[in-house]
Design brief:
15 helices, 30% strand, 24 strands, six-stranded antiparallel beta barrel, alpha+beta, 621 residues
């Protein structure tokens, strides 16, 4: 029985070509490894009709066939359903397929699929189509498939370790290169340091760094070369090779392998004329454009591979933005302004930024409209309402305040009492002079009776003097009562807190203004005073009466300026066109003087235009 089973197993184990094993052992790329492995697996299992290996693409979650056996003549679509079920359930599966060929009750066709796992991570699957006469044959095929997937698992783990190792090396190299670039003081020296260090890390003979501007490539730096000239044959050849990579929008390897569908004509010219056996050009894309290219060259028997490209891409992706920042900082103000204008122009005329285009169109329409539209040109100015006449009531003499009847804010009628000065001293003085006059009159009569002519004249003179002093005293008594000279409003003065207090001669006690006579004071900016003329009309709105417009007429332009908040203002006087009972002196507001009809654009841009004229005059005239 044992011998019979052994014979059955040997039936499904044909002899394997040693060259196939050697190719499988030497395979380095994933596709080659999987292709040789699947060929070996299907060769070992003679009952296998066809097979397929499906693996996840590197850096993506999608799956695609990595190997198919046989390469010609198979029908992989028969394994599609079972492959999709394994991808979904991530477990081994066996299903019966429709048999193709001669009818046989003992031989059936099956689909076998087994997931490829590395630890807990799912990478793909292997699916086979096999024929089997018995359940033992089918079981043996499934076991061999399960054991065989271990080879692919080993490959995946090896790739994972290699990627981790390469990632660490790239990170370390990137940090070292970044530190070296930051240590340079200028953009040119930083570029030279970058390509030189990259040459050493990747063991290249020459590394060239180019930047793309205005769709033209400029070689910024070449390793171990202190001077780069666009006229050099080497530089021209490098630029053509770089442009070839940018045109194809992918990495370009030279010499190209049979799997690569690339145009390498310019790379071939660079290799043939300047002795580089292997060349790799890598374009870099950012911000919707290709902005840089790196070309690496080697003359040794060591071609560039994907690891070299990934290494260079990782390092350059970190260093190139730093170099760009350094270049931007070293540009002149003129270049900065030109680049800014170009960027804005591209956004305006380009195929994107529709909102910006609509905004520019709207602004153009506004400018055109307001360039032909006219409007009222008015000059705004702060206004203060003053009485046309302001009477000052002062103390007629030095004395004391006896009583006060009004204070600031009170309305007074003509001849209404304002205050009374203390008159006791003047009353006593009046009695004194009255008694002296009576005494002088008696003495005068006695001298006349005695016919003393000289004595009579002396007494007559003394009597006249006493009468004059009496009149003066009575005049002072009349002045102790201060009255309103006209009907009006008391603007200032409050003696209720000074009763009994002294007041000096000429001291201002009250200020009174009439209620029916006003003048408007406008503070006009000196930049607009030339537009103001006597007789111009205007409107005023007071803070106390915001809902009413009060008309006025310019009456006088005074050549007196007032410095206020860093500007100079002229004092312009105006008179009210109509009376208003609610107006009071001291009210403030805003007035506008109507000048005439002018272009709206010129009105709104006048300040800016005048400022530019002054600056041009200051610096250029």
């Amino acid at each position: 029985m044992v011998k019979s089973n052994l014979n059955e197993e040997m039936k499904f184990q044909p002899r394997i070509d040693n060259q196939l094993w050697a190719d499988f052992v030497d395979a380095s790329e994933r596709e080659e490894y999987c292709s040789y492995w699947l060929t070996l697996q299907c060769s070992i299992l003679a009952n296998v009709v066809q097979g397929i290996v499906v693996l996840a693409e590197e850096g993506a979650k999608s799956y695609s066939p990595s190997a198919i056996w046989p390469e010609i003549g198979g029908d992989p679509e028969r394994l599609t359903e079972i492959s999709e079920r394994v991808l979904e359930e991530k477990s081994g599966m066996l299903v019966e397929l429709d048999h193709v060929g001669a009818d046989s009750d003992s031989i059936r066709t099956y689909g076998l699929a087994y997931p490829i796992m590395a630890g807990e991570e799912f990478y793909g699957l292997v699916a086979l189509e096999a024929v089997a006469e018995t359940e033992d044959h089918l079981k043996y095929t499934m076991e061999q498939l399960q054991w065989g997937t271990s080879w692919i698992e080993v490959m995946l783990r090896r790739e994972k370790e290699e990627r981790a190792k390469n990632s660490f090396e790239r990170l370390k190299a990137s940090v070292d290169l970044l530190a070296d670039v930051f240590s340079k003081k200028s953009y040119v020296s930083a570029c030279m340091s970058f390509v030189t260090e990259l040459t050493a890390y990747l063991e290249c003979d020459r590394v060239s760094l180019g930047f793309i501007k205005n769709k033209k490539i400029r070689v910024e730096s070449v390793s171990h070369s202190s001077r780069v000239s666009d006229n050099m044959n080497l530089i021209q050849a490098i630029i053509k090779a770089m442009d070839e990579a940018v045109t194809q929008r992918k990495e370009v390897y030279y010499p190209a392998t049979r799997y690569d569908r690339q145009i390498v004509r310019d790379h071939e010219q660079l290799s043939r004329k300047h002795g580089s056996e292997y060349i790799l050009s890598i374009p870099f894309y950012d911000d919707d454009r290709y902005y840089s290219v790196i070309t690496l060259e080697r003359s040794k028997k060591r071609p560039f591979n994907k690891d070299d490209a990934m290494y260079c891409s990782s390092v350059a992706s970190l260093i190139l933005p730093v170099l760009e920042i350094m270049r931007q900082k070293e540009r002149s103000i003129v270049h900065v302004a030109m680049d800014g204008c170009k960027n804005q122009l591209k956004k305006i005329v380009g195929h994107q930024y529709a909102g910006r285009k609509l905004l520019i169109l709207f602004l153009i329409i506004l400018v055109v409209f307001f360039s032909v539209k006219t409007g009222d040109y008015k000059i705004s100015a702060n206004t203060v309402l003053e009485g046309d006449v302001k009477r000052v009531i002062v103390a007629p003499f030095e004395g004391y305040i006896k009583d006060s009847y009004v204070r600031a804010g009170d309305y007074v009628a003509q001849d209404e009492k304002l205050c009374v000065m203390d008159d006791r001293e003047y009353r006593l003085e009046r009695l004194n002079w009255i008694s002296k006059i009576a005494q002088y009159q008696k003495q005068y009569q006695e001298a006349q009776a005695k016919h003393e002519r000289a004595e009579t004249n002396i007494i007559k003179a003394q009597l006249d003097q006493a009468n004059a002093r009496l009149e003066l005293t009575e005049s002072q008594l009349k002045k102790t009562l201060l009255t309103a000279p006209f009907k009006g409003l008391v603007l200032s003065g409050d003696l209720s807190q000074r009763l009994g207090g002294a007041a000096g001669k000429g001291e201002i006690l009250f200020e009174i203004a009439p209620l029916d006579q006003y003048r408007i004071i406008l503070e006009v900016d000196e930049r607009r005073i030339t537009d103001v003329l006597v007789g111009q009309q205007g409107m005023m709105i007071l803070s106390a009466l915001p809902g009413e417009k009060i008309a006025f007429t310019v009456d006088k332009i005074t050549p007196i300026t007032l410095a206020k908040e860093g500007l100079n203002y002229f004092r312009v006087e105006a008179r009210l066109s109509t009376g208003e009972d609610r107006l009071r002196p001291g009210m403030e507001g805003v007035g506008k003087i109507y000048v005439g009809r002018r272009n709206l654009f010129s009105i709104w841009t006048r300040n800016m235009r005048e400022w530019f004229k002054l600056k041009i005059w200051e610096y250029w005239s």
